[in-house]
Structures are given as structure tokens and as C-alpha cells.
Amino acid sequence: MKILITGTSQGIGRAVAEKFLQEGHTVVGIDRQETAIRHGSYTHYQQDIRDYDRLPALTGIQILINNAGTQNEDDIDTNLKALMHITEKYGLQEGIRAILHIGSASGHTGSEFPEYCASKGGVLAYTKNVAMRAAQFGATCNSLDPGGVRTPLNECVMNDEELWAQIMDETPLRRWATPEEIADWAYFLTVTNTFCTGQSIIVDGGESINRKFVWK
Q1: What is the extent of the structural domain holding 50?
Q2: Helix (H) or strand (E) holding 141
Q3: How far apart are CA 13 and CA 65, in angstroms?
Q4: H/E segment holding residue 163
Q5: Residues forming the active site
Q6: Is 62 inside a domain boundary?
Q7: Is residue 144 part of a domain?
């Protein structure tokens, strides 16, 4: 199948792209940075997804995965508005099989920076809207909402012993996911899954359900 993935230069996006390539699919990536992916079935477009007029003319997309995102950097414009534009341009059309938005557990809990939480919360509502409209093509639309993931963008807290200890105390499984684990979920929700739609799946090691009860 032909897969379009945004944000493939590193972290989750790169891992997702490599997963689909390993499984024999054709992958197109869009990212404002260069990518280290070198594969005969991979095509890379280096540009910002907010530059709507410069987006490539692509046809035959069967799976769309909206992964590109920012934190404290025009979050609503990138994480929500650009995601919506990409979906309307490439996702809602004949031949589409699945659309997946990479959201965040923070969109459910609100426990992060205000604009980031707002952008990811908007993705939750938009996912349901797209699921209703994608159904006419026999396609599913879900969001995959990770908690902590061991990516370069999170190294500032991963490398801080004090902060890392506090984070682990709030995470029942006492670890963060690897990008490859999130990629497995992305593959399942878009290839294996054919019936679950309009859902937002939290994958965070139990962090969002941990509510400490303090009693004297």
C-alpha cells in the first residue's frame, strides 16, 4: 500500500515510516527537516506542512498518518490546523483505507503546556468528525495518543535524574514507550484494524490513570 506520513525525520514518525517499509509498503514522508531514511520505497519531501501552497501533488494515498507536531512553537497552527489541511487534501478521497492522527495523552488530561493541550484536544474532536466522513469510503479514522516516548525531543527530561525519577513515580509501568512500540500501534490501527473508528487510544504506560490518594 501507499502510505503518507508527516514528520518522518526523527522519533515516532521515523519509526512509523521504517515499520511500514519493513512490511513492504511504499512510504511518502513530509518533514521540514532532512531524513536519514534511505530506502528504495521511500520518497521524502522537505517542507513545512503549514506551507499549504507548496504541498506535493500526491495521488493514490491509501493510509494517511498525521504525525508532525511541535511543542511550544505555534502548536495550534501545526498540531491542529495543518493536520486538518493535510487530512482534507490527502485523506478524504476514494481509495483511502485508514487515517491516523498521532495525538497525545495530554489532550485527554490537560496536563501540559496550554496551547499544546488545546491543539491535541482539538485533534480528539476532529478525529470523530473525520471518522464520520471517512466511513463513506469504507475507511477508519482514529487517533493514537501516547504519553511519554523516548525521542530526541524529550531528552531534556530523560537526562535529568531528578525530573526522570518524578516522572517514573507517576507512571505505573515505570518506563516510557520506545518509538518502535508506538509504530507497532500505528501499524495495527491502520492495517490490521478495519472496524474500530472514531476512537482515541491512549498508550502511556498508565500515566493518565494514576491518581494518588493521599490520606493521613
Answers
A1: 2-150+177-207
A2: strand 140-146
A3: 9
A4: helix 161-169
A5: 116
A6: yes
A7: yes
- Please check whether residue 216 lies inside any domain of the structure: no
For 51-101, write each residue's pLDDT tens digit: 999 999 999 999 999 999 999 889 999 999 999 999 999 999 999 999 999
Q: Give a yes or no: residue 36 inside a domain.
A: yes
CA dist 164 and 21 (Å) reads: 33
State the total domains in the chain.
1
Confidence of residue 209 (pLDDT cuts 50, 70, 90): confident
Rounded to an integer, the average pLDDT of 12-16 is: 98
**To the nearest 5 percent, what fractions of the chain are helix, strand and coil?**
45, 20, 40
With cell 495518543, the residue in question is 145
211, pLDDT greater than 70: no
The pLDDT of residue 214 is 46
Per-residue pLDDT band at 212 (split at 50, 70, 90): low
Are the C-beta atoms of 39 and 48 separated by less than 8 Å?
Answer: no
**Other residues' Cβ atoms within 10 Å of the Cβ of residue 98:** 25
Instruction: Using the Cα atoms of residue 18, residue 91, residue 73 and residue 111 in order, give the sign of their dihedral.
Output: negative
SS3 for 44?
A: strand
Non-local CB neighbours of 94 within 8 Å, separated by 6+ positions: 137
Q: What are φ and ψ of residue 56, in 5° steps? A: -70, 155
pTM above 0.90, yes or no: yes
C-alpha 188/C-alpha 145 separation (Å) is 14
User: Which residue's C-alpha cell is 518533514?
Assistant: 31
Contact (CB, 8 A) for 183 and 19: yes
CATH number, domain of 48, equals 3.40.50.720
